[in-house]
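Continuing the series of single-chain predictions for the mutant panel. This is the parent chain; the variants come on the following pages.
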Amino acid sequence: MHPRPVLILAFLACILLAFAGCTQAPGRANATTPEPAVLLNLSSLGLATGDLPAGYTLVGGREKTLSDVGQMAKDLGWQGGYELRFADSAVDDVNGTGIVQSIAIYPEKNIPGIIAMVNSQDRSDDTLRYTNLSLPGIGDAAAGFYGKAPAQIVVKPTNQNPLATGNGSHDVEVVYPRDIAEAIFAKGQVFEVIRITGPGADPSLAGSLAGTAYGKIP
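Parent structure:
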């Protein structure tokens, strides 16, 4: 008995559909294509010492890997990162001012929410008095703040040698407040944070450096 023509045609149709890629698993027909990663040398987006005020030096720079970021960043689609650190004095000088530039790649659709989240989370020090930072010209979603620390604190060192200085003699060390000025911005899939910490934290400098960094993004 010969196969019926209808069955033969149905069998051929199934083969054609398979080669056309139409044999998707249930529930995946409407899956969206992931946003492609940006092919970019992130170190080329970094600030240079010439972009900073006189006296600042580069004290560190490195590419970040998945092991450097938390699960939330991974869940939000983190695809790569780079970080630069500058200081106006010795790295271990508690009275110095430091500048950190953090660069990361995320899906563009997630970046407005990431900016809002970082802007909120980075204001977690309740000893600071915060004001918003104006950042014109570096993207509609840009945000930033200036956190002013309380008055300077004077502390007495605990390692004085009474045989050398006498029991009634104490030198004092002035520990300056750690103000914060931070700019948070993005262009396309490139997300950046410029953070200045220390007694020399200047909100206008944070805005200026953010503008310079923004101009380096293609």
